[in-house]
Write a structure and sequence with these properties.
Oligomer: single chain
Helix content: 10-25%
Largest sheet: 18 strands, antiparallel
Structural class: alpha+beta
Strand content: 35-45%
Shape: elongated
Number of helices: 9
Distance between the termini: 53 Å
Radius of gyration: 34 Å
Number of strands: 28
Length: 670
């Protein structure tokens, strides 16, 4: 069990907290003196609120919190004083009121307090129905980006100009009269096809006399085999030879590239284009592989247009590839706002994002995002560098946030939290075509958080040490899959997370800590039902092998999960989420750039804790609702939604988010 603060320190901090909070209670309630149990319950509520604030600040765009803005000052609440978090177990008795006012309240006397007394108190992770206290520090696992339907790919003739002609038969062999007995053919120079494949093509030309015209037909059959498989610069010919013994030699000239010349680049290093095309053109030149490589470059986002032309090389069997490109606009800057934050730190979020997809001319990308709410500030930075021509990348991410509770009446307690996340990831596609991608990746992540109360470091969340610090070191192994078709896109991710106790990570024998194992699976499916009519399905699941720190738990509720409920209304070790949304067009502007869609949706989620944790009072959320989605080109997007909760849970309705109303606005002028 982590060391707890000394009794003297607890007394100083909580007497100070009580003095500040008592003033607020007197001013707001004007009620008769409260029982000692009621005061104790309020202090527990303050502590719970601080926990939420401390653990909601470091995530963008989704933040965790589930505080009630109202306290129930009545005798029924006073009887629940035994629901104090474990962090308060060692708090000495408070003599603010006489315990005679309520004989049901046990006195926590230092002389009689024992481990037996403490053992009778509930676990700190017990669900508290009066004020549910989910806790999270740091950014949550980001949902998969919604896959867009694929743009129509350019036709092959637009990407690849007609090839140089394949080698032809010397003229002196074309008009030789007579016949020759052929027992078999000997094909020389073929590295693409096996002897059995070549024999199958030539089986109609053996064991019988052949005219020279038929001999040339046999040669053409070999050439056609190459062309049919996309080897458009390869061909066969019959070299000069003595036609005797029933054996005829056919020479195959497999076309290869002599060089790749790239013109039209400005900031992008031409090696980026050349190296990726070289992978597709090594060995005998294949039209399908070259076409696929050109399409992947077109889809990379770095090039607005690309085309290639095959030209004759300096010697037979070799070609030059001339590639013309036009670079795309890679810089973007935009503003956004929504109400996806936790109400405890201000649900209204606004921010600015700047990104460059070709920062140093290497195809490397960088993005910087600043977000702000009434009680929080956050900065996200990501840099991604291609490390090989197979589109393998190394990414570094940094997230820093600082928050404080602004939700009354807890804003008087000066509850603050700061969070930092550092992540290093390597991702490597192993299958990559214009329609399909399978990628593997591994990453290391470090998460740190600190919480304070009244300006003093203080533990406010499960698993934090006596100074309110939580440290997580974890390894993540993930697999990505994307399948695109003309009218649908399927995207999936599987991720295994292994928490380790290295680099000063939080380790405890009784509390959840940095040593954990969890699996996360995400799935998205988009289907084009009719023109501008989309069906969007999305699901998310997490399975944990034990108790998790709040920073790693699965949350439900909010704009990105179950709409109609407060952000992260439920939080647990494991859970699942599913949503279905229809996007139906109802109006379009005359220039075809603006589109308004109505979006009915249904959301569902369920969470549960691991065996060592107490059962949750509520574990299922279900909602249905209606929204509007407006998009004008790539520059502006607006989303409005109203989610109706179909399963009631205890929550206030102080903010639009808690009333089920959501909005999101994005504007990118550049």
């Amino acid at each position: 069990m982590p060391l707890q603060p000394s009794r003297g320190l607890c007394e100083i901090r909580f007497v100070s907290a009580l003095a500040r909070f008592g003033t607020l209670i007197i001013c707001s309630c004007w009620s008769p003196p409260l029982a000692a149990a009621t005061v104790t319950e309020h202090i527990a509520s303050i502590r719970a609120t601080a926990s939420v604030a401390a653990e909601s600040e470091g995530r963008s765009p989704n933040f965790n919190d589930n505080l009630q803005s109202e306290l129930k000052f009545n005798q029924e609440t006073a009887k629940n004083d035994d629901r104090l978090p474990r962090n308060l177990y060692n708090v000495p008795k408070l003599d603010t009121y006489s315990k005679d006012q309520n004989p049901d309240i046990p006195e926590f006397d230092r002389a009689t307090e024992s481990e037996t007394t403490l053992a009778q108190l509930p676990n700190r992770r017990e669900n508290r129905p009066e004020i549910p206290v989910p806790s999270r520090i740091g950014p949550r696992t980001a949902p998969l980006p919604e896959p867009a339907l694929p743009e129509p790919l350019p036709p092959p003739e637009q990407l690849l100009q007609p090839a140089a002609p394949a080698p032809t038969q010397p003229e002196e062999l074309l008009n030789i009269p007579g016949t020759i007995e052929v027992d078999r053919f000997e094909v020389i120079g073929s590295t693409v096809f096996s002897k059995a494949e070549l024999d199958t093509v030539l089986k109609d030309f053996v064991d019988r006399p052949l005219t020279f015209a038929e001999l040339l037909q046999a040669r053409s059959a070999v050439s056609q085999l190459y062309i049919s498989k996309g080897y458009i610069t390869s061909g066969a010919l019959i070299p000069p030879q003595t036609l005797a013994g029933g054996v005829v030699r056919i020479l195959v000239v497999e076309g290869k590239l002599e060089s790749i010349n790239v013109v039209g680049t400005r900031r992008l290093n031409s090696h980026y284009v050349r190296s990726r095309l070289a992978l597709a053109t090594g060995g005998p030149l294949n039209e399908q592989r070259l076409w696929s490589a050109l399409q992947l470059l077109q889809l990379s986002g770095l090039l607005e247009k690309i085309s290639a032309e095959l030209q004759a090389g300096s010697r037979p069997g070799f070609n030059l590839l001339l590639v013309r490109v036009k670079e795309a606009k890679t810089f973007q800057a935009g503003l956004f706002t929504d109400n996806s934050r936790s109400p405890s730190v201000g649900s209204w979020r606004r921010g600015v994002e700047v990104s460059e997809a070709n920062l140093l001319g290497l195809g490397d990308s960088a993005s910087l995002t600043y977000t702000n709410s009434q009680g929080s500030n956050g900065v996200d930075f990501t840099y991604t560098l291609p490390v090989n021509s197979h589109n393998g990348t190394v990414s570094f991410g940094l997230n820093r946030t600082r928050s404080n509770i602004i939700e009354p009446p807890f804003d008087a307690l000066d509850i603050e939290a700061s969070g930092r996340t550092y992540e290093l990831t390597y991702r490597q596609p192993v299958v990559q075509t214009p329609r399909t991608e399978i990628a593997l990746g591994i990453g290391a992540v470090r998460r740190e958080s600190d919480t304070s109360l009244l300006g003093e470091d203080f533990p406010l969340s499960p698993g934090s040490d006596s100074r309110g610090k939580t440290r997580v070191s974890a390894l993540r192994v993930f697999q990505d899959f994307t399948q695109r078709a003309e009218k649908q896109v399927l995207a999936a991710r599987s991720q295994f997370s292994l928490g380790v106790g290295a680099f000063g990570a939080t380790v405890s024998n009784k509390e959840p800590d940095s040593q954990f194992l969890a699996w996360r699976g995400q799935l998205q499916y988009v289907r084009l039902l009719a023109q501008q009519t989309l069906l969007v399905l999305r699901s998310d699941v997490q399975l944990a092998g034990g108790e998790l720190l709040p920073i790693e738990q699965f949350g439900l509720g909010g704009l990105e999960t179950v709409r109609g409920y407060r952000q992260d209304a439920l939080l647990a070790d494991s859970g699942l989420f599913a949503t279905a949304e229809l996007r139906y067009p109802i109006w379009r502007t005359g220039d075809k750039k603006g589109l308004l869609q109505v979006t009915p949706f249904v959301d569902f989620g369920n969470v549960w804790n691991s065996g060592g944790s107490a059962a949750l009072e509520a574990n299922t959320l279900l909602s249905a609702g209606l929204g509007l989605k407006w998009q004008y080109g790539e520059n502006a997007r607006v989303r409005l939604g109203w989610g109706i909760p179909l399963i009631d849970i205890k929550s206030s309705d102080r903010t639009l988010q808690e009333r089920g109303l959501y909005f999101s606005v994005e504007f990118k002028p550049f």
